[in-house]
Amino acid sequence: MATLQKVNMGVIGAGGIAYRRTIPGMLKAKNINLTAVMDVVKIKDIAKEFNVPKYYTKEEDIVKDPEVDAVYIATPVYLHLKHIRLAAENGKHILCEKPLTTTLRETKEAVDLCRKNKIFLQEGYMMKFHGAHKKIREIISEGKIGKVVYIRAQLSCWYPPMKGAWRQDPKKGGGGSLIDMATHLYDLIEFFTDDKISRVSAITNSQVQDYKSEDSSTTLLEMKSGTHATIDCFFCIPDEASRTRLEIYGSQGSIFTEGTIGQSTGGTMEGIMGLGAGGYDAKQSKDVARKFRKIPFKKINPYTAECEYFADCILKNKQPEVNGWKNALHIMDVTEKAYFSYKLKKILSV
């Protein structure tokens, strides 16, 4: 079991995002030993590439390995509940990719399984750990841009039809661009403001791609404090055509980023602060000089940081507060109501 203040991790679903991002990030974590990996294809090659001592082709085998303390689940979403159940019933703590499941009903079942078996559960909303996003939370909490009145967050990509792509089938992924990408941003804006979404209305449809999941989603949100937000996420905008922008407007200033949303450690950030004390400008001149300045931030690998946080919770015997089970239930509630709002053509309370 956990030795020398390190957690022995196993990975269920070692291809995809695990292979590209999380495993490389996990290998840099100071409090983790990557002990075993599991997948149904090329797993021997993956284990060799990352120098992992054990590999499996069946999830039932990796969760029964006595040397594995916890697992990272990165399989297609429709399999998450099955794998959470296997891990929980075999005493393995769980870091699971988002979304946790395809429906709120399944999320409740997953949470109940973990709580019943005294298992720590963390969902993989890693963007909270990005250096720029941590800095934004700090700036807002210090009141440097006043009351946050509006946030716009953007995350889009080009995702054409591909044979076997589970995200393109709502039965396997729970939906398309909204559940896969917009949920990241629902979670992120709450992190920035330490506020909760209270009302939601969305448009979800398909404009370009010929598959069952939606390729387009735009969400209008109201926070408990009254802050407005819009989230736009699309599977039908070429990557090169989108700057992946984040805009946060307050009563005393604003913060803008490009390239911080997504899987990167970098991007740029600028802002203007200390405004809002002047009188009314009857001329409403839009040619006023805007003295934005670059805002530096620490470069942090968000995958390494989320894994280290998860392992630290295990070592301290403390249920994760960041991306824990309460947050999983809340974000899935927002997600389902976003989908329902378009079907009902109503603004729904969360």
Note the main attributes of this structure.
350 residues, alpha/beta, Rossmann fold, Dihydrodipicolinate Reductase, domain 2, 2 domains, 10 helices, 32% helix, 23% strand
Describe this structure in words.
The chain has about 350 residues and is of the alpha/beta class. It has two domains: about 5-120, 3-Layer(aba) Sandwich (Rossmann fold), CATH 3.40.50; about 130-300 and about 335-350, Dihydrodipicolinate Reductase, domain 2. The chain has ten helices and 15 strands. It has helices at about 15-25, 45-50, 60, 80-90, 105-115, 130-140, 170-175, 175-195, 300-315, 325-345; strands at about 5-10, 30-40, 55, 70-75, 95, 120-125, 150-155, 195-205, 215-225, 230-235, 245-250, 255-260, 270, 295, 350. The chain starts with 6 loop residues before the first strand and ends with a strand. The model has no long low-confidence stretch (mean pLDDT about 95).
